[in-house]
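Q: Here's a chain of 384 amino acids. Please give me its 3D structure as tokens.
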Amino acid sequence: MNKKRKIVILQNIDKLLLISIIALLMGGMLMLVSASMPFAEKSLGDPFAYLYKQSSAVFLGIIASLIFFLTPTQYWEKLGILTPIFAIGLLSLVFIPDLGVTVNGATRWVKLGPLPNIQVVDPARLLFFLYIAGYCVRQQEQLRMTFLSFLKPMIFIVPACLLLLLQPDFGSTVVLLIVTATLFFVAGFKFRYFIVLVIALVGILGLLAYISPYRMARITSFMNPWDDPFNSGYQLTQSLIAIGRGQWFGVGLGEGVQKLFYLPEAHTDFIFAVIAEELGLIGSLLIIGLYAVLIWRIFSIALKAINSKRIYQGYLSFSIAIWFATQVIINIGVNMGLLPTKGLTLPLISYGRSSMIITLITLAIVLRIGCENPRTKVNKKIGG
């Protein structure tokens, strides 16, 4: 790539998207320190242990992001079916003895010697979206004409969902299916076919929840956590107490009490409850607003790519936007008692080293797509 081309790409970077990423990342590190200090001091002997770990992940993520940002996006399209095959291979690693790591009854991590444990669903999810975007480009006419056109990618998606359910990771299964179905609709899948597909997916997911005792327990406790506030409803009731204590402006940064071993997973899945307690409604709305800006800019990049006839890049950006929106809505919904517990983190804020690295890589790909889009104004009608 020549020097002039590099300058043009950097000039075309989406500044609002970059600002929202940096703001969420900095705010997330601040809230991680506040939420994790009591648990880190008790379990690891250092109140800043999780800050050090997350900082190392951010550093590695930035280095990896630079590499992905400098890579032209057409290379990802050329990978084809290699990406889902590799993703299924990653998801299978957790079931290998002495390699898979079980935490709180879930086997979602792999141990690679001195390296940190890796949650394999994070890179696998991105690999699947690289594939699905390419499939929608290659089979666009079939998606628009026939109902059964969605079956081909199921050769990879169904085994992946089964592997996720065996871990078990119901939340990631839901995200994968939602993004896939929505991207099919964006690619031209007829609305009546889309509705049938959604009904079928809801039925399958509902059946899976019904036949699994622990998932049914989560649903029943979510419907009325105060029936059993010291057992099945404990996590949700503590989250609701934290959110209620925050009122308008919060109790003050670092002054929350629910993180003092009352609220489980305060630095991971339920960090939004700590934000609501310490920063109040105003702080919570600020975080939600930053996510809204981030998702809006990704959708805008996707729309511009499609209108510029860069269909693969547009579909990939759409899948990433849907992924982020789904995960943010589910996480905040769980914290507020609007959805059953799913075990999904809050992107760029919750603790999780592999999640942080993959999130930064994913956003680097989106920034690259935005930089590759032409700067001239185009018609905003999809498919026009």
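Q: Can you summarize the key feature?
A: The longest strand covers residues 106-110.
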